[in-house]
Amino acid sequence: MKKCLCICVIVALLVSLCCFVGCNVNDIEKISKNLDDYTIVCAFDEQCNVLSATQTVKITNRTNNTFDSLKFHVFANAYREDAKQLVVPQMYKLQAFPNGESWGNISFDSVMVDDVSVPFALEGEDLDILSVPVEKQLFPNDKVTVQMTYEVQLANIKHRLGYTENTVNLGNFYPILCYLENDNFCCTPYYNVGDPFVSEVVNVDLTATFPQGYVVASSGNLTEATATENHCTYRYQMPACRDFALVASPKFNKISQNVGDVVVNYYYFADENAEQSLAIACDSFEFFNQNVGAYPYKTYSVVETDFCYGGMEYSGLSMVTSKSESYNEAIVHETAHQWFYGVVGSNQIDNAWMDEGLVEFLTLLYLDHAEVLPLQKSMLSNIKTYTMYVDVLNNYYDDVDTSFRPLHQYPNDTQYVLMTYVKGSILFHTLYETMGQAKFWKALQHYYKTAMFTVATPNTMTTCFEQMAGCQLAPIFAQFASGEEVIGKITD
Ligand SMILES: [Zn+2]
Fold first, then answer.
1. CA of 460 to the centre of ligand 1 (A)
2. Do residues 255 and 261 lie in contact, with contact meaning Cβ atoms separated by under 8 Å?
3. What's the CA-to-centroid distance between 311 and ligand 1, angstroms?
4. How many angstroms does the Cα of residue 346 sit away from the middle of ligand 1?
5. Is position 77 within any domain?
6. Widest distance between CA atoms in the chain
7. What distance in angstroms lies between residue 336's CA and the mean position of ligand 1's atoms?
8. Is the same domain home to 374 and 311?
9. Distance CA 313, CA 121 (A)
10. pTM of the predicted model over 0.90
11. Do 470 and 439 reside in the same domain of the chain?
């Protein structure tokens, strides 16, 4: 996700790298053979703002554990009126609900396991976990097929999932298997701070029907399109996809450009500089493609939409908030997420710094490369912002916690942004300065190649960086994580 940050300008740096890194894109075909399969057939009703769907998930138990039930996140239920916490932090409420409060939910008609109806249940701290019992226990290597029929009622909200007068955002709308950590389901609730998501990559085959006149931006490749008098139906496929999303609008225009073999699309409805926005998407895409590693999918779509933060990343698709102040920067930020969040996953609940901090720093490296904003200047600004914030807190509290924490342990959204994006970018800048630019890029390439299509841990990242640096970096990671000595070191 992109949150607006106060980043200004001063000096110029010397960077210009173009070391092409070859990643084996064929890996995706090999990888996809050993992943769960999601087949979703859905239709959008514009009268009621309801998405009706049937979803089939073919799951293999790849753990050493035996399960009595399967757990799915149903984030659509976070939009309920009676949800324990509002779907956005209070400070974003007016932005998110310009027409007043509006609610959504998900309701299930049926859930079947291997063609037999089962007594499913909504559970979890805030009814956002779907529990699906399996009649016979699911042993290691067992396979099971879950089929569910459901309706998602969309709220009138500028958020990941919702409709506005301009667009229909369909992010996190479908039930997604909870992440298996240490062979157990992580049934974390939805949090309104940060991106409360972590998921394995899966193969998605999604067919969506929209009323005639809607233009649809989507993750994955369009493989079929058919039309009737009133409707258009599109089929998309995406192997090794972390999270599939669509945005639809009758107002969309679309322009495209190739970057190598990848088609980069830009969907927009109000942007008066659409060609420039596409150029920024393509140029930053190429920069990350060359410096980090090859993007493994065939398409990438940047989508102007109504949203309450700066933007939001999905596999192969980025939502960018219409008319946001830092629109171009958000395009770059979300594009960088395709590499770190999308291809290389991480636990965004426990370790949000791993993708947000890195992506924020990569954005600054790109802005420096593109001669928009020198790195020294942007980093100085981030350091000032961070130290000022901590100074202010220190005036009020005895013991200020500056550690990296799981999302729900940040007292508010501001502190989450400061710690994760701003301090996160300072961590990666510190590594960049310590290792030197050549080794930094090599480490990122190594990390990308090592962790692609997985959910990387801080340990994977540290090890990859140390291997390329040829020196110990664990103490730097540890100090930033714990919040010790960081401020003193930076302000020296
Ligand atoms: Zn982000």
1. 20
2. no
3. 8
4. 12
5. yes
6. 68
7. 8
8. no
9. 30
10. yes
11. yes
